[in-house]
Amino acid sequence: MIAVTLALVAAASAVPVTDVKPEVGLRAYVEPVKTIRSESSQQPEGPYSFSFETENGITREENGQVKEVLDEENKPQTVVVVRGAYSYTDNDGKIETINYYADETGFHAEGPSIPTVAPSRR
Question: Positions of the region Disordered (predicted)?
Fold first, then answer.
């Protein structure tokens, strides 16, 4: 009897819980979102690209290119320039798209939910 009880407890604790509401003490199993499209490519010289889409409408695409830049001491340095975008449906049911790039100047993102700096007054 103890072995059966322990087996049941072990099986119950192995079920993934992804929706936890601690304020009411409820836990529910939520089926993982399925990927409906996935593509990727990697070149030996460094360039890459990938994209995917999930059944709930999330999409992402990204590509990277190798670029040579000069560092602070004017020495050549190889960096990967990344460009991409992702989209999802926000809580109001609106599709939100964020575009981004990253290069030797840092990471830069643009989209409706990304804060922007107000122009300075002169």
Answer: 36-59
Sign, Cα dihedral of 103, 116, 84, 30: positive
d(CA 62, CA 77): 22
| pLDDT band for position 118 (cuts 50, 70, 90) | confident
Helix (H) or strand (E) holding 59: strand 59-70
Average pLDDT over residues 40-56: 94
Quick one: tokens of 15? 């079920």
Q: With the CA atoms of 19, 20, 21 and 22 taken in that order, what torsion angle do they form, in degrees rounded to the nearest 10?
A: -170
Look at residue 90 and tell me whether its pLDDT is greater than 70: yes
pTM above 0.70, yes or no: no
CA dihedral (22, 23, 28, 32) positive or negative: negative
Percent of the chain with pLDDT over 90: 55
Contact 86, 65 (CB under 8 A): no
The closest alpha carbon to 82, from 63, 97, 69, belongs to 63
Q: How far apart, in whole angstroms, are the C-alpha atoms of residue 40 and residue 57? A: 19
